[in-house]
Design goal:
InterPro entries: BetI_C (IPR039538), Homeodomain-like_sf (IPR009057), HTH-type_TetR-like_transc_reg (IPR050109), HTH_TetR (IPR001647), Tet_transcr_reg_TetR-rel_C_sf (IPR036271). The protein contains nine helices and no strands. By secondary structure, the chain is an all-alpha fold. It has a domain of 134 residues: Tetracycline Repressor, domain 2 (Orthogonal Bundle), CATH 1.10.357. The longest helix has 29 residues. The protein is elongated.
């Protein structure tokens, strides 16, 4: 097994533990048992639990972003259609998974005292905002020749998506995924009408 394969296996084991148990899964011993390796092998490949969790953060966030990009891009050239697909994919069952929330809560909680994980958060959030900015910017330029604060629009849209996702994971009966899609589509109408126009 190559170094990259072994590291990928350890990252996968860490994510499995965090999804199953949240903070209780934040244990080198549990992760080693899940991966069926010695604790020493985790230290050998990552040096510390924080570095492993940081790599797991980037792997999970990066994987979701790659999936969204692949679905929205490709043969879809119309900016409005791409946004529509992005919204629907953001609320598909694989993303609206309460187990994912367990892992995210660990990641978010650790950003406050772990420089490694804070850095991972900053990098993944920046990549996500960059993609949103591209989607919203393309949509705005299709409709308008005026200026628009795409950065603030992207932060606003991202925050709304995050809030809807968290609430849905906490209480799946609060609203249906279709309701979340409708809320986001209404936001897009407001955006296209100029709510972030300069």
């Amino acid at each position: 097994m190559t170094v990259i394969q072994r590291q990928s296996e350890l990252i996968s084991a860490a994510l499995t533990c965090l999804k199953k148990e949240g903070y209780k899964g934040l244990s080198v011993r549990k992760i080693a048992d899940e991966a069926k390796v010695s604790v020493g092998l985790i230290n050998h490949h990552f040096g510390s639990l924080e570095k492993l969790i940081s790599a797991a953060y980037e792997s999970m966030a990066g994987g979701i972003l790659i999936s969204l990009k692949e679905t929205c891009e490709g043969e879809i050239t119309d900016p409005a259609k791409r946004i529509e697909v992005f919204i629907r994919e953001s609320f598909n069952p694989s993303i609206l998974d309460p187990d994912l929330l367990n892992a995210w809560i660990v990641f978010w909680g650790m950003t406050r005292y772990s420089p490694e994980i804070d850095k991972s958060h900053s990098l993944t959030y920046a990549s996500y905002l960059e993609f949103l900015s591209q989607l919203l910017g393309d949509l705005w330029r299709q409709d308008n020749s005026t200026e628009c604060n795409i950065r603030l629009a992207s932060i606003s849209f991202s925050s709304m998506l995050d809030g809807l996702w968290v609430e849905s994971c906490l209480n799946s009966h609060a609203f249906k995924p279709e309701d979340a899609v409708s809320i986001c589509q209404a936001w897009i109408k407001g955006f296209r009408a100029g709510m972030f126009a300069s």
